[in-house]
Amino acid sequence: MIKAKSGKSPEDNNMKEKEELKKSIEDNVNLFKRIFQGDDTVTVRYFANQEQGKIKFCIIYIDGMVDVETANRNIIQPIVQSTFPKNFEGNMDVILEQVVLSNHAEKICNVDELVMRIIRGESVLLMDKSDEALVICTKGWKSRSINEPENEKAQRGSREGFVEPILVNLSMIRRKLATPNLKIKNMVLGKESKTNVCVCYLENIVNKQILNELFDRLNNINNDSILASGYISELIEDSPYSLFDKIGSTEKPDVAAAQLLEGRIVVVVDGTPTVLTVPFLFEEYFKAQDDYYINFYYSTISRILRLISFIITIIAPAFYVAIMTFHQEMIPSPLLYSLSAAREGVPFPTIVETIGLLFVFEILREAGLRIPIQVGQALSILGALVLGSAAVEARIVSAPVIITVSLSGLTGLMTIKIKGPVITLRFVMVLLASFLGLYGLVFGIMGIVLHLCSLRSFGVPYLLAFTSLKTEDIKDTVMRPPIWFIKKRPAFISGKNKVRMSEKDK
After folding, report:
1. What is the pLDDT of residue 8?
2. Per the CB 3.0–4.6 Å rule, which of 246, 356, 382, 417 could disulfide with 237?
3. pLDDT value at residue 454
4. Per-residue CA distances from 118 to 35, 59, 79, 189 (Å)
5. Rounded to whole angstroms, how far apart are CA atoms 321 and 318?
6. pLDDT at residue 13, as a whole number
């Protein structure tokens, strides 16, 4: 970590002292050494021109964040080998325009800005008898290659996924949207982390009220560190205590581009392969980018299956508990005899069985996420065969409960985006059913629907697709119509330009 002598950040220390660059190169170098005192990764390299050795130069950078070969080739070697005019002393413009071999070089006098550029991985060039410095881009840290994200596997279409460097992510979005209407606004968030955050939107499509609201919320963030997009999501979302997400996320550039074309806004955070999208509505949980690469009939069926799976995964365990505890008269006699025979000898009531198995299932699911892939098959065998079969044979739990919990877990995998709310609501519904039977189940469903109706995402109703009377708002929701049928963008989300396909474009 880079620390100042006083224990404060280098920026705070420098702002307090209000120091500026001086004509003496030794004074300037001592200034930077004092700011970065205690940081052994900061490199200071003196050198001079081979013909005019009296004029000293110095380059300052952080080891590990700079491509040393680029610095040698574009900065040190040209200065050492060039032939300078006789009276150029102190004139940094000569170095900038005639010597340094880099497209990304600029003069900066502000010490605060120079410190930030060094921390970002750029090199600062100082010259004797000059109170100006050159900042040259020599960034060279390693990053992983672009590959398909694990959480958003695609059957067809693009397999590119975002990576950690923000410039790479922005370039992937620009390749999808080759238009000057794509605007990217840069911000720096986090008093200590100084994280680069870019807000991307299509100027001719975006809703300006939503955009202004987003900028207001981002500007109000006053946190020490913003290390990932999840930090921003929690700090700016509506109804932060709600189980449901009000800000979307994706790791795929094609999904981000599609969201921008809908009028949404994309927030890209440096160091995070996941970008944020606002506003986020409830029906987006059940959408997938593959829906637009396959036949619209099959896409519609897939979306309906996801919605039904969401309902089943929440209700199935609670419905079983309610029926077996309070409403046995609703079960057909042959089925009731089978269930009674299966439960014979089981010492625990239905509610204890169900909650216990749901808890074990969540343990197995969490373990499957954390363990290495090679151990995953062994875990599946252990959970399905050993624990399940042994529990039934030992009469600890009954087979119908295992079937019910397995069905709930399987349908929960269909809607992986809504995993967090599903886990919580599943337990809540089971508890309500155990106290009030089917009445508790109905009350729970009513509570969920009323809560969803009360939510908004940056002013947009969360259930817009299910409550709006405008056809453009409900066309591409539960049902996926043909592309040529979706002529307008969502009216509530997009700005003035709502026409996606005119008659001439059709």
Report:
1. 43
2. 246
3. 92
4. 12, 10, 20, 18
5. 5
6. 45
- State how far the alpha carbon of 52 is from the alpha carbons of 19, 84, 100, 349, 383, in Å: 30, 8, 17, 92, 76
Task: Decide if 221 contacts 236 (C-beta within 8 A).
Answer: yes
DSSP secondary structure string for all residues of 304-354: HHHHHHHHHHHHHHHHHHHHHHH-GGGS-HHHHHHHHHHHTT--S-HHHHH
Sequence ranges of the domains in the chain: 10-136, 166-280, 300-457
Of 12, 40, 24, which Cα lies nearest the Cα of 115? Answer: 12
> If DSSP codes are grouped into helix, strand and coil, which group holds residue 50?
coil
Roughly how many angstroms between the first and final C-alpha of the chain, as a whole number?
57
pLDDT given at position 317: 93
* 3-class SS of residue 405: helix
Spatial CB neighbours of 355, under 8 Å, sequence gap ≥ 6: 427, 430, 431
> What's the whole-model pTM score?
0.81
Q: Which residues in the chain come in under a pLDDT of 50?
A: 1-17, 505-506
Find, among 317, 411, 394, 393, the residue nearest to 356 by Cα: 317
Note whether 195 and 226 are within 8 A (CB): yes
Burial readout 348-380 (b: 16 or more C-beta within 10 A, e: otherwise): bebbebbbbbbebbeebbeeeeeeeeeeeeeee
DSSP string covering 365-399: HHHHHHS-HHHHHHHHHIIIIIIIIHHHHTTSS-H
Radius of gyration of the chain (CA): 30
State the residue for tokens 């040698």.
72
- Residue 333, number of CB atoms within 10 A of its CB: 7
CA distance 130 to 21: 8
Residue type, 238: D
Answer for the pair 494, 262: CB distance below 8 angstroms, yes or no.
Answer: yes
The CA-CA-CA angle for residues 112, 116, 121, to 5°, reads 150
Query: Across the beta sheet with 182-189, what order do the strands follow?
Result: 182-189, 195-202, 265-269, 275-278, 248-250
214 close to 266: Cβ distance less than 8 angstroms: no
CA atoms within 13 A on the CB side of 192: 11
Angstrom CA distances, 213 to 84, 217, 226, 260, stand at 53, 6, 20, 17
For residue 384, the model assigns a pLDDT of 60
- Give the per-residue pLDDT at 385: 57
**How would you label 214-235 residue by residue, b for 16+ Cβ within 10 Å and e otherwise?**
beebbeebebeebeebebbbeb
Give the distance from CA 87 to its chain's centroid.
54
